């Protein structure tokens, strides 16, 4: 089974702190994603990566950055946490993209971040 | 921009009643995926539909992909408490080979 593991289930940080959310997958997937989930808004893509050291902005990248130094690890960084970044953060990976098979996303358990 | 609209946002049913959620895309989709998220959990892939008019079944769940490949539905027959959760549809973005466009989800609630 594919396993996507996020470093924390719950996190409480102060406004202005730099926050690191870590994600590791064990299936040698090329593609990794960071989503934010808020009630009524579904899943919104923050950043994704299709290869080591490669990253692309999703729909809501402002206030976030990412790092992918190794294939299995994708980190989300909140440069200076703000209260409007309080949310559920979900990491996902997939084998391939686009219109073919093996494009399904496998999700981590999520990190519920509260910024106070 | 490209959108996937999903309705209803919530559906309350008595256990044993049927449940349906609908997705409508603003553009033709090459495929559509369905996911289930249990309360407190993370989205889990259920199925992918690729062909126009495709119908697939998983026990009490029936998934359909419209003839024009712009809409899709998930129907659950005789709901059980284990069906509780939020069901999402997602399709590939036209502007990016890498992204999925997600519906906002339909939350299935079983009335006590």
Give the topology, please.
The complex is a heterodimer of chains A (116) and B (112).
Chain A: E1 4-6, E2 10-13, E3 19-25, E4 31-38, E5 42-51, E6 54-57, E7 64-70, E8 73-78, E9 87-94, E10 106-107, E11 111-115
Parallel strand pairs in A: 2-11
Antiparallel strand pairs in A: 1-3, 3-8, 4-5, 4-9, 5-6, 7-8, 9-10, 9-11
Chain B: E1 4-7, E2 10-14, E3 19-25, E4 32-37, E5 43-49, E6 55-58, E7 61-65, E8 71-76, E9 85-92, E10 100-102, E11 106-111
Parallel strand pairs in B: 2-11
Antiparallel strand pairs in B: 1-3, 3-8, 4-5, 4-9, 6-7, 7-8, 9-10, 9-11
Report the β-strand fraction of chain B as a percent range: over 45%
CATH superfamily of chain B: Immunoglobulins
Largest interface: A-B, 24 and 24 residues
Shape of chain A: globular
Euclidean distance between termini CA atoms of chain A: 36 Å
Element-by-element helix/strand order of chain A: EEEEEEEEEEE
- The number of helical runs of chain B is 0
Rounded mean pLDDT score of chain A: 92
In whole angstroms, the N-to-C terminal distance of chain B is: 40 Å
CATH architecture of chain A: Sandwich
Could you tell me the radius of gyration of chain B in angstroms?
14 Å
In words, what does this structure look like?
The complex is a heterodimer of chains A (116) and B (112). Chain A is mainly beta and 116 residues long. Chain A has one domain (4-115): Immunoglobulins (Immunoglobulin-like), CATH 2.60.40. Chain A has no helices and 11 strands. Chain A has strands at 4-6, 10-13, 19-25, 31-38, 42-51, 54-57, 64-70, 73-78, 87-94, 106-107, 111-115. In chain A, a hairpin with a 3-residue loop joins strand 4 (31-38) and strand 5 (42-51). The N and C termini of chain A lie far apart (36 Å). The model of chain A has no long low-confidence stretch (mean pLDDT 92). Chain B has 112 residues and is an all-beta fold. Chain B has one domain: Immunoglobulins (Immunoglobulin-like). Chain B is 0% helix and 54% strand. Chain B has strands at residues 4-7, 10-14, 19-25, 32-37, 43-49, 55-58, 61-65, 71-76, 85-92, 100-102, 106-111. In chain B, strands 2, 4, 5, 9, 10 and 11 form a 6-stranded mixed beta sheet that branches. Chain B has a 5-stranded antiparallel beta sheet with strand order 1-3-8-7-6, with no helix packed on it. In chain B, strand 6 and strand 7 form a beta hairpin. The radius of gyration of chain B is 14 Å and the shape is globular. The A-B interface holds A 31, 40-45, 48, 50, 56, 58, 90, 97-99, 101, 103-110 and B 6, 9, 30-31, 33, 35, 41-45, 48, 88, 90, 92, 96-100, 102-105.
């Amino acid at each position: 089974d594919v396993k996507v593991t996020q470093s924390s289930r719950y996190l409480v940080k102060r406004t202005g702190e730099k926050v690191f959310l870590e994600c590791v997958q064990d299936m040698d997937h090329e593609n990794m994603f960071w989503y934010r989930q808020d009630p009524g808004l579904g899943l919104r893509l923050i950043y994704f990566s299709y290869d080591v050291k490669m990253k692309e902005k999703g729909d809501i990248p402002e206030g976030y950055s990412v790092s992918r130094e190794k294939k299995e690890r994708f980190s989300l960084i909140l440069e200076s946490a703000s209260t409007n970044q309080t949310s559920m953060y979900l990491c996902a990976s997939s084998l391939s993209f686009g219109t073919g098979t093996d494009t399904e996303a496998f999700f981590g358990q999520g990190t519920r971040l509260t910024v106070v | 921009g490209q959108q996937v609209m999903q309705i209803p946002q919530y559906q309350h049913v008595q256990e044993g009643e049927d449940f349906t959620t609908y997705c409508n895309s603003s553009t033709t989709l090459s495929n559509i995926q369905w996911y289930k998220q249990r309360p407190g959990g993370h989205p889990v892939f259920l199925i992918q539909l690729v062909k126009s008019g495709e119908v697939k079944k998983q026990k009490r769940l029936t998934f359909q992909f419209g003839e024009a490949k712009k809409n899709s539905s998930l129907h659950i027959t005789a709901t059980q408490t284990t069906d509780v959760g939020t069901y999402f549809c997602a399709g590939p973005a036209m502007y990016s080979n890498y992204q999925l466009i997600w519906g906002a989800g339909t939350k299935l609630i079983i009335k006590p």
